[in-house]
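Inverse folding, one chain.
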């Protein structure tokens, strides 16, 4: 087995922890009136220069410094070290850097983050060995992601919305002539596939959001019932919930649907770090310990709802006109801002999204966009970029692909 070495320059005790890392706390922490003891298990949900936001299982969310946290296992620490080392080594190899998201769409407010995406080209030494090539560079806070050029080209050919946005929004910036070649050839990625990747994807999320909305509406009710009487069984609670108006052909079917809702709830709360176990007993314990319904799940936030409408509108306009336009103008912009502020009920937003379906189908039928992307041109582009990176390495040109190229990580053979 090949293993990567060469991470000795990173201190395991301070290496940044990516969002999603499972951790163990090293200190006690007070959360409201409750003490979160040292050794509590949690998951990193956000970070900045000084603090990590951690969802503690069965408790809630608390903030910790890096030295107050330990990755739960050595594998996660190794992943964090490799990610940070790769970021430091290959960040100078970024050839395309684009501000995306709400700032590119004209929908940013004072609290909006600045998200960046782009592409990097690895030096020859990183692509010619047996060590696997990093597919992306991700900043510690997750706000910046740069795809390896081959990965970006593959995603663009599949009409991935995030990738096409990176290539086509106003302000996409080439950091090197290789990045400019990418921008000059970006129309080779355009095809009718945006109908599926942008619009049909958005519509597919409507049903998912309706289910999540229903789950959120039930959670307050269920927790209140469990606080009243913690001896109730899952079947008893499901029967009670079924009588509140769960839609099903028969009462027996309604009870089965209600039981499914309850299972969805405790799995959802466990995934968010609020339940110590993903089962009904974990839900009962959470309710009896004073746990209350958390803020809306991520997918139910207004930001997600307005993004569905934005994706649909972008796809419809692109299919109709042949011109990619990501910046939103009025009257749609005013509507999306109102949704983002939480001034429009989610159910109404989902209804609006579904009403766009006929308009989407009409745009697809009438579009002049090519049926498929120009794969041959994309292939030639990728070869040209990689040959140029190799040329700079061979001739020892100045810069991140030549004499200043980062040394790739060492590898060793492990018989284990």
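Residues assigned per position:
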């Amino acid at each position: 087995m090949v293993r990567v070495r060469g991470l000795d320059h990173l201190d395991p005790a301070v290496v940044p922890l990516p969002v999603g890392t499972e951790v163990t706390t090293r200190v006690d922490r007070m959360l409201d009136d409750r003490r979160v003891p040292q050794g509590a298990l949690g998951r990193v949900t956000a970070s900045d220069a000084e603090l990590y936001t951690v969802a503690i299982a069965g408790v809630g969310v608390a903030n910790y410094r890096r030295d107050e946290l330990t990755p739960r296992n050595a594998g996660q620490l190794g992943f964090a070290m490799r990610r940070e080392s790769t970021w430091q080594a290959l960040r100078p190899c970024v050839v395309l850097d684009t501000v995306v998201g709400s700032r590119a769409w004209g929908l940013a407010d004072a609290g909006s983050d600045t998200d960046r995406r782009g592409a990097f080209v690895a030096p020859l030494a990183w692509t010619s060995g047996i060590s696997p090539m990093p597919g992306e560079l991700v900043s510690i806070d997750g706000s910046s992601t740069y795809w390896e050029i081959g990965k970006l080209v593959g995603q663009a050919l599949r009409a991935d919305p995030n990738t096409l946005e990176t290539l086509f929004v106003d302000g996409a910036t080439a950091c090197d002539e290789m990045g400019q070649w990418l921008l000059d050839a970006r129309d080779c990625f355009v095809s009718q596939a945006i109908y599926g990747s942008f619009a049909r994807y958005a519509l597919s999320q409507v049903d998912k959001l309706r289910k999540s909305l229903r789950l959120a509406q039930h959670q307050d009710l269920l927790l209140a019932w469990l606080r009243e009487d913690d001896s109730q069984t899952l079947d008893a609670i499901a029967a009670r919930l079924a009588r509140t108006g769960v839609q099903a052909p028969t009462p027996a079917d309604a009870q089965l649907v209600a039981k499914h809702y309850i299972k969805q709830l405790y799995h959802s709360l466990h995934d968010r770090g609020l339940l110590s176990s993903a089962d009904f007993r974990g839900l009962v314990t959470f309710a009896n310990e004073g746990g209350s319904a958390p803020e809306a799940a991520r997918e139910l936030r207004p930001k997600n709802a307005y993004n569905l409408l934005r994706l649909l509108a972008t796809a419809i306009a692109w299919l109709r006109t042949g011109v990619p336009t990501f910046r939103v103008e009025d009257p749609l912009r005013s509507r999306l801002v109102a949704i983002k502020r939480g001034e429009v009920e989610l159910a109404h937003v989902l209804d609006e999204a579904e009403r766009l379906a006929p308009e989407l189908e009409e745009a697809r039928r009438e579009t002049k966009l090519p049926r498929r992307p120009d794969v041959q041109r994309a292939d030639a582009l990728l070869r040209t970029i990689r040959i140029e990176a190799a040329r700079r390495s061979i001739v020892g040109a100045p810069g991140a692909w030549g004499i200043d190229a980062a040394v790739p990580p060492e590898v060793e053979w492990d018989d284990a």
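The first strand starts at residue 2 and ends at 4. The CA atoms of residues 96 and 174 lie 5 Å apart.
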